[in-house]
From TrEMBL:
Signal peptide: none
Protein name, per record: SDR family NAD(P)-dependent oxidoreductase
Species, as recorded: Nocardia callitridis
Record-linked Pfam families: adh_short
Stated family: Belongs to the short-chain dehydrogenases/reductases (SDR) family.
Length: 272
């Protein structure tokens, strides 16, 4: 595999959660870091921590803002050098029953979880391709991007991120740019409270038993530092999918088998 020491990584959602775990893992390997996050306080703490390990720049960023994305890219590449490791990681966990959907809620849910990924790709890929020196893209999807569940706003975006990543890997292979999609299970982050900070009406934290179960589910999940190391291992293996556990395995197998069973029997096969 390529030597990453001295490379530059741009990480959205890099001030906290999985993004911070990835940043910590990269910093140990001599990667220079550009951390982008909408949370200024988290971004400051992460920058102070990681600047003691490697060269680090922080940039406030709402991944829905394309102009801000381009400005952040210019600033980072001017200070640190060309970005060749891109982590489209920023995300929220929107929750709303179908009876409460609005266009505005869809815009927020897809704006962060899907368009945020697209904006990162559209900002950095032309630069990577023009340089012709290769690179690596890791998009953060979810186990919910592999199996359906009742969180429709979340699942829709994450299925799209998985499909985008699988197709992008084929497209970018001729440019020497690898692509992986991270499909985490439960991870011990503050994504539920952070979602409410972006859009209160999409927060699952409503004081119900279901919301308490969601909080407990994540608190007992994989640590962000372990996820960071799993991402590095997946990149070293050039894995298409990077998982943090096997919680979707059985449901995914059932889904795939059902898909195969749904195909019509080829003509004449029943008499073979």
């Amino acid at each position: 595999m390529r030597e990453w020491n001295g490379s530059v990584a741009f990480i959205t959602g890099g001030g906290q959660g999985i993004g911070l775990g990835i940043a910590r893992a990269l910093s140990k390997r001599g990667v220079r870091l550009a951390l982008a996050d909408i949370d200024a306080d988290a971004l400051k703490r992460a920058g102070e921590e990681l600047s003691h390990v490697t060269e680090t720049q922080t940039v406030p960023l709402d991944v829905r803002d394309r102009d801000a994305f381009a400005a952040a890219a210019d600033s980072v590449e001017s200070a640190l050098g060309p970005v060749d490791l891109l982590f489209n990681n920023a995300g929220i966990a929107p929750s709303a029953p179908v009876s409460q959907w609005t266009y505005e809620k869809w815009d927020v849910a897809l704006g962060v979880n899907l368009n945020g990924v697209i904006n990162g790709l559209q900002t950095f890929l032309p630069r990577m391709i023009e340089r012709g020196t290769g690179g690596y893209v890791v998009n953060t999807g979810s186990g919910a991007g592999l199996i359906p569940n009742r969180s429709v706003l979340y699942t829709t975006a994450k299925f799209a991120v998985v499909g985008l990543s699988e197709s992008l890997r084929l497209e970018l292979s001729e440019h020497g740019i690898d692509v992986s999609v991270l499909c985490p299970g439960p991870v011990n982050t503050e994504i539920l409270s952070n979602t409410g900070s972006v859009e209160a009406s999409l927060s699952v934290l409503r004081g119900t038993e279901a919301s308490r179960n969601s909080v407990s589910y994540l608190k007992n999940g994989t640590s962000i530092d372990d996820v960071g190391e799993m991402v590095i291992a997946g990149m070293q293996a050039r894995a298409m999918w990077i998982h943090t556990d096997d919680f979707v395995r059985d449901v995914l197998r059932t889904r795939v088998e059902a898909l195969f069973d749904s195909f019509p029997t080829p003509a004449g096969a029943e008499n073979a």
